[in-house]
Amino acid sequence: MSKRFFTYMLLIAVAFSAVAQVNVTGKVIDKESNEPLTGASVIVKGTDGKIKKFASSKADGAFAMTLPSVTGCRLEVAMMSFAKQSIPLDSVTFPLTVYMEPGTTLLKEVTVKADRIREQGDTITYNVGSFAQQQDRSIGDVLKRMPGIDVAKNGKIQYQGEDINKFYIEGSDLLGGKYGIATNGISHDDVGAVEVMENHQPMQVLSGISFSDKAAINLKLKNKAKATWTFHGDAGGGYSWQPEGAIWDGELFTMAVMPGFQNITTFRTNNTGEDLSSSSIDFFAGRRNTGLSRYVSVGLPGVPSLSDKRTLFNRSFLVSTNSLWKLKNGEFKANIDYSFNRVTADASNITTYFLPDVEQGGRDVSRPYDRNRVITENRSGTEHTHSLSGKFIYELNRRTAFINNTLRANVDWDDVDLVTSGSIPNEQSAKLPDYYVSNNFKMIKRFKGNHLVTLQSVNEWESLPQTLTLTMVPDAADEMYRVTTGNKFRQHISDHAFYTHESAAYAFNIKGVTLSLEGGIKGYFRSMDSQLPDFPEEVPGLTENVVNTNYMTVYADPEFEYWVRRVNISLNLPVSYAHYTFDKAIANHDEVYFSPSLSFDWKPNNRFSGSFSGGLGRSPMNMNLIHPGLIMTNYRTLKAGTEQFYNSSSQNESASVSYKHTRHGLFANGTVMQSWTHIPYTMSQQLYGDYVVYSYADADNDSRMLMAMGSVGKTLDFMRGSCNVNGSFSRNESQLLSQQQSVNSVSTGWSVGGKINGNPCRWFSFDYSIDYSDSRLTMNGMSESWLSTMENELSLTFIPYRKWQWTVSGEHYRNEITENSFNNVVMLDTKLIYQLNKRIELAASLTNILNKRSYNYITYSQLSSFESRRQLRGRQLLFSITLRK
Q: Is residue 785 pLDDT above 80, yes or no?
């Protein structure tokens, strides 16, 4: 009886407790726009003022908490840029609707820190509204202000110093590696929050079995941007002083994010110096296994340090459409891009080749490089590039199975025409098309929870024909004579390759230990031939190549992985047997390769993580280097390959650490990498008159590379800003041959930089960044002077009235041309914006107000220096209109 009575009383107590619970639910709404607010801080305080429960509003503005009682309690809702709301809960009914009104008092509240960045498990959530400033346009502009996140100019994202491995929009991978279209295109006003998912494993079938140390980005859109088409467009026109004439800039960006369908389509065109081709870069694409690379290197002169908007004389067009359909079983994606660029450039260059001095058969060590060869050039050219690419993907991503088939096709055309006067007057014309097709199939099946079977098939084909036409001009001053007279050379290169890789793998996991074995076969078939019928008499050697390079490789890759709690250890022991055939050009080879590697990751808590990795092994040489004859790369440079097969050996190690304290908005990371490589052949530089020939000789080349980098980022909540400090150091040592003399080359460089931004008051915001770097070249113990570069950028935005916005920005470049001789360039811009209403915006901008028209710089390589004077885009005035939906 007593047991039965006790059971009854326990059930009554549990029931009473359940009945006594109060569900505090509701929504947080922006009173002006009537839109839900994401990331608002919702707190329940008791009569003593202490916090009893807290939560954050979700994407639809909803919040929910459960308390035993709300008697005497108050609900406080706070969010950056809104006045805090306080509601007594004694006599209200749920769900509540809390309307937030604009306000500035929250800038003094401690809760600002929690509002800007939140952490839940391995997910870090950044509130976009708390980092955005009025002058920002794309989500990329806001990402740059978030500590721990770095965004390059082309849109590439790193988190804590490492590349992200996925970019999602509402949980879907629409763009793959071409997410630069999103970072530079999606309006920040359509995004409520940015989620960073640490240790993200994109394949669900590997969850809990294979460790990932990479992070992914997910954009959480506002409700107004979901289940509908959104778009924004810009159209502008004006006048430029250099190049003189009319300018234009236009963009149309459309996006649909629906339950079963996503699409982003963009059209862009301009001649204002903005490079559009970077928008279609696939950041996740690895090196093509076909391994082909261009021998011909005719190109327009470029400018380091300065941005494209200062140096690019272009006419550009880009169209990109990307669609994702969610099917009953998986999803299908199609990404299609086409871009066109017409670029012109003019430059004056001086190239100095460092040559060892030879006296009476020996080298005069007191004057190691006093017989330098100097080449002067005045270059003017035009380049036309067309690029058409398509990627079609079917993917099933589930806990029990993963299937992915990716079909890619790329067709590129690149035509360059370059006229050079000076030491060697000439005209060059290069036709450089590229055709590439690949298909990658991968299937992973998970059995009984901890057994995996993987099948993969990769097939790639590429054709890379190259044609270089060169006309040597005896007298560049006489236009008629220059066109009708001179020696003409025409070189054609045919280069084709096919690669196939078929593999299977089995893995099983027991209590945090995963053992796997992958085996497969790789095949590679390449043919290359080149002809240069006429050739400069000064240069000795063959001028034709007929090369066939084939190999078959059988391999096994056992892997051991230990993953328990906060520690992951991974050991790879790949071994392979390869058979190489060269169609009698050189002797066939059979090789065995073994390249073990070890990695260790440790994450003792959610704030700190560290990793170490290392490896060693043998690898075959670059197959592109096997060709006995000379190939002309440009009008005064030729390259000869090797007639032997070589292997290289290497060792590498790296270590990294990262730390974050999200409540304080602090993020820090650091990485050190070091590698040693031994190659039994060395590059040789030889001058014959005005021509430079690069070839390879039987001589040991032991190179060493050391690199270190790190950064620290911090929110500055008192002024709604953030700051970042970063630094890097590198040292590369290798050997070369110049004029048959051995040269030990050491290049050393370091850099330090920082940036800070803030919105200290309603009518003012600012962005400032500074980068300083130093570099030096040492050859055979003789060092050149340290040469430094420094860049400052400052942008000030004033909002005198709600509808007006005025931005003044400037850039300062300070480059050391020679020791203690500096070149300073200051560029100033301004822009005035008037917001007619929420959908229409008018703007006028004046770029390069001081009308700077030229820029000097100098760079050093292992065996030469390069000094250049380049034209800059002059002053330009642009009027534009922006429409938004």
A: no
